Give the backbone structure.
Amino acid sequence: MKGLELFTTVTYAHFLFLSFVLFALGVLGVLLRRNLIVVMMSVELMLNAVNLTFITFAKALNQLDGQIFVFFVMTIAAAEAAVGLAIVVAIFKRFREVNIRFFQFLKG
């Protein structure tokens, strides 16, 4: 049981590193993928990474400001998902495929 003590200590740096990894994966998903649903999921992943950072700093600084910001970020993420899915449905109805290159045809 003594060897498990090494793995029981989780610091704020671990949470910040996890947040960085999640954000980097989200950025890679946005930059490298062409499917609009995958891009939206990557944006949500980036927003969740930011939420994890806010919560980590709120806990580290012993303040509630970070948790209040998380509430607003979650509200924005829900609105983004609703508008994004409406755009996905509009693109799918017109082109029978969900691809980012079809955005140029949605003008006016």
